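Ticket #4471: complex job returned nothing on first submit. Input attached below:
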Amino acid sequence: MILGPIGFTTPWLLLTLVALPILWIILRAVPPTPIRRRFPGVALLLGLKDEDSVTDRTPWWLLLLRTIAVAAVIAGLAGPVLNPRAEGEARATGPLLIVTDGSWASARDWREKIAVINGLLAEAGRAGRPVALMRLSDPEELEFQAAESWRSRLAGLVPAPWAVTPAMMERAADLLGEGSFETRWLSDGLAYDGREDLLVALEARGPVTVHESPRPVLALRPAAMTDGQIVLSAARATANGPRDIMVAAHGLDPAGVLRVLATLPLQFDATATEASGALSLPPELRARLTSFEIAGEETAGSVSLTDDGLKRREVALIAGREDREGLELLSPLHYLHQAFAPSADMLDGALMDVLPANPDVIVLADVATLSGAEEAALLDWVNGGGMLLRFAGPRVAASDVSRGEEAPLMPVRLRAGGRTVGGAMSWGEPKTLATFPEGSPFQGLVIPGDVTVSAQVMAQPDPTLAERVIAQLTDGTPLVTRKRIGAGQVVLFHVTANAEWSTLPLSGLFVQMLERLAVASSVTPPDATELAGSTWQPVEVLDGFGKLMDAGARPGVAGERLLAEALGPDLLPGLYEGPERRVARNVIARDDMLAPVAWPERIPVEGLERAAEMPLGGWLLAAAALLLTVDILAALALSGRLWPMRTAIGLLLAVLSLGTPDRVMAQDDTRAIAATAEVVLAHVITGNSALDDTAHSGLIGLGQVLSFRTSVEPAEPIAVDLETDELAFYPILYWPISPDQPTPSAEAYVRLNAYLRGGGLILFDTRDADVAGFGAASTNGARLQRLAAPLDIPPLEPVPEDHVLTRTFYLLSDFPGRYTGRPVWVESAPPDAERIEGMPFRNLNDGVTPVVIGGNDWAAAWAVNDRGDFLFPVGRGYTGERQRELAYRFGINLVMHVLTGNYKSDQVHVPALLERLGQ
Amino acid sequence: MIDWRRSARSDVQYVRQREWQIAQSVMIWADPAASMRFASDKNLPEKAERARLLAMAMAVLLLRGGERVGLTGSSLPPRRGQAQLARLALALMQDSEADYTSPDMGGLVPHGRALLISDFMGDLAGLRGALTAAADRGVQGILYQILDPAEEVFPYRGRTIFESVGGTLTHETLKANDLRARYLERLAERKVELGRLCAATGWRLGVHHTSENAQSALLWLYRAMDGGTMA
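Support reply: We reran it on our side without changes. The output follows.
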């Protein structure tokens, strides 16, 4: 039964929906379960009767929820299916054969084809039909298996990069076996021989349905070079209206990365199955091209590989004997070198040595006569497709080559003498070039205004001259002439290759003309003699989707088969390397046509859009289960047995705020930000809480005094744990020594050393006023020695009178804390520090002393509590207060020294200092 | 008695009055019944706990004042001294299984004082008997009713089966909120009944809810025991 887009497999179950209103009434009538309560006032309730017997009802929304849940269960059990098959289709049974062409043309829309196969397999699985899958591009024995096993193997189904040959169709027909089955054929849209026979064989075994993509097949032909431009042409199977496609040229960029180097738009006319266009690229890019691809199509046929056909030319430069040595700019080959260098490989050597290397172009710069053997060899070479480029010069002008009759290697007859124009004893001015005529390989080149010709050799006006001229001057004098010989050509420039006779070699036009010429010589595809008897190794191969893969260890292919045989599993399209060159075998040859397949009318042909049948039963049952869960919660809530809101919310918050790791890091970050946002004085945690508190209060007191009297306004002091905290944030570290302190670990010492090296200062305070004095150290002193042993502390000395610490803010001579009079140790001055005349101090260490060691218990002298009272007594009476004041002054000096370094040692302060010192 | 010595000094007659200071006996009863062991909310103490707390607190104050404190019935007669506190504490911890109990006025000291703390939800006949017996002996006292706020407000609704704490009584209803008005009426009636009983016998009546402050309850009880109709 079909109801809109949903069909039901067991529709009679829906009749039970009629029972829903009855369910409603029953649920409404049945009162909820009573709650049992303990209540001492029951004695007062005895005897009270209910006024009305109408019960407390379940709320209507709960009833609705329950009704919907039951309805969902009933609907789910009735087996609803989304997008069911049409009424007319009989549900087929029996085995199912899915045939795919699996050729390169199938690779387009491959995902949709896989989706169709998936849908077919799902339906077959639900109906319990055995399924077999066959690829025509690689036919194998038919195995009818359960649909599920094919579904798991579906991911491995890929198209092959070759087309289906008649042999493959025959083999497939042979492998069909005897049983009867229904066939679904996913075809690629191209006509192959042998399709008809296979179709007949399949129809004999059962009904056949064909699925085909409506998009036409596109293929790209191999690129060809014509007149310096790359000609690309694409073909399509059916002409169904105008279409624009984009062809991308892929190649390596200078870093070796594969990129799109150029794009060419091609246009199909409404009724055309061919489209072609020309791409002109600078030769550097051309040499780097590797493949062309139609954008958007991912098939092997839309990719055409380039082989040596677009490669760098090999140019041989041969000049006559050089009379002048060392004058490079006058050499005829210099400009040719510069012109060919970016795009061609240069060969230098004698002519007979160069010819066997088979260059593409041979340049003879001012070479007049050639020996007989040389000439014969050159002629052979030109016949075979080489280009001979000759330049005139004094020797050519002075010789008699090609004067009487046309020399075989000269395009025209030359007139004796030459023509000098614009020189000291001539009539006119240097001539300029005329625009290049039609049919000339230079056609379209822009002539710059400064190209002039002042001397050249002249050509005899022969009847064949007009068709051989490819460049001329404004007065019609031929400048460049060309003659074809066999597959090659000879080109003569009537000027020199250097700048003596004309300014042409100096201009960019020269390079462009040479390029046009040099590339005009075609590199022919290998001929039969070259292919016979050789084995070609595949270097890179294409897969069905047009991706280039490394060929790995594939076997080589015999030369005869390489270009002639049809592609197959043993002959993949790709780049093959032979004895001398590389050749690309593409899917479509230059003159292959694509023909669309024409199915007979009795076969139904469908597209690839198949709305798959989707069973909804599972979803509905799941929804019903969810609703019932909600119903349970609602019923609990109604009777008050659900957790009260407060605990539920509390639980939720507790779960949500379960420490995520980010919180720990956030705390570290806030600590770091607090330590670095302001100046922070730090003290080392010693483990003795009284000591730590004193140090903390001491630094607070010092900070307050600093804020009052200086521009340094430190924030709250921070207690530093040497094992875990980062020390670099703190300019100064106050370290009170006690005998029971823990020794820092090795990592902590590493950090401390880094801190000292990075410019930090540690104030060691043994707090015992150096009781031991001379000789043995006190307990605190001994502890300090052990603690500071692994530290990188420089040699120390008692603070000299002109140390910068004595004058960084206040002028001090003693550094008292709670005790006074004991020496304080700092980094010792270099032994050669001397006092400059007129300065009241020596120029001591440039930087900040890394340690200050003393025993005067400074923190206790500085310590204040919240109310500002001093925590520890210092001395007695007025002297004591004076001593505390000096202790604060020492602290200020120390912090100033840490923050400003030896600023106060600058000469700038000397006058003020002298004034203060009373000198 | 005429005070001749003082009267002789002037024309007016003076009378000498002497006061006899003697320790008063106070007998306390905290209801041990099962109905007291009820708290409607876990934040509130049980009625029995509050009752015992008040009883002990009164005992401490009275013993400090030198009176004699004991329990009703013959198990713990009133005695002076700190040791009596420990005996009182032990005796107050006894629980009874019955749902509602009445005080045992067996060993009443004549002209003493009594303090009865209960919820008085059970049958009032026993209480009436006790009070009349006490009034015969000349014992005056305080009736202190402790109620749970839920018993005062009756916040129940829906289909409920009410059970007494001891499990002996049950009452089933289909719609509890319908019963509220009538229950509250009955509760008010009971309070009025208690008030009449006290007025007839010269006792005082106090009501306390477990959600209220125990200290203010103690203050009231102490004042009530001290002043009032005591001679």
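The mean pLDDT of chain B is 90. Closing as resolved unless it happens again.
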